[in-house]
Design brief:
The chain is an alpha/beta fold. Helix content is 22%, strand content 24%. It is built from 4 helices and 10 strands. The strands form 2 sheets. It has a 5-stranded parallel β-sheet, with no helix packed on it. A 5-stranded parallel β-sheet has the order 2-4-6-10-8, with no helix packed on it. α1 (22-37) packs antiparallel against α2 (43-55) and α1 (22-37) packs parallel to α3 (59-66). The termini are far apart.
Amino acid sequence: MTSQPLEPSPRPVPPGGLRASHDDREAVVERLRDAAAEGRIDFDELDARLEQALTSRTHAELAVLTADLPQVDSPASRPPLVLKGGVYGASRGPGRWEVPGHVIAHGGVGGVKLDFTRVECRLTEVAVEAHGEIAGVTVVIPDGWAADTGGVDPGIGGLTDKTTPDRLPGTPLIRLTGTGGAGGVVVRHPNRRERRKLESNPAQGQVY
């Protein structure tokens, strides 16, 4: 009996060697345009760097193009927003609030509500870690936004996803993880009462 040859194990990808996505390239393009507007690079150099950005295949190739530019404070790099329902509950929104790249919500006894309907978010993705616990967590997203709920363990309270998959270009994806606990996790678009408030005052609070 002859033994089968072992297949070679995949080699680890070196730092910066990961393949860049369309969003990664677009983020660098935007940063280069901002740098030109600030007078940090001239327009001839901007054209050359933009061409390189659009043809870059890896993160390392993209990093070279902005290595001599100041680092910018982006929402994705900010600390997570942590909400704890406690006894009396907690909420963020509707209204003007700054959306970080990561939100952690613990329903506690009072519950937590996250309402994104009044924000303008430039992130391509927002990670929401929701733990329903006793009273649950509710996440409200605007029409045109989409949610990925594959990372949520329903628990006893369950997971209720009332969103539509019709994501508009340029809107963020809400990537949900966590556990339903006893209270459950709900993600949905605005209900009738919330829509009436939006229609009565459509200009209230736009941000970020």
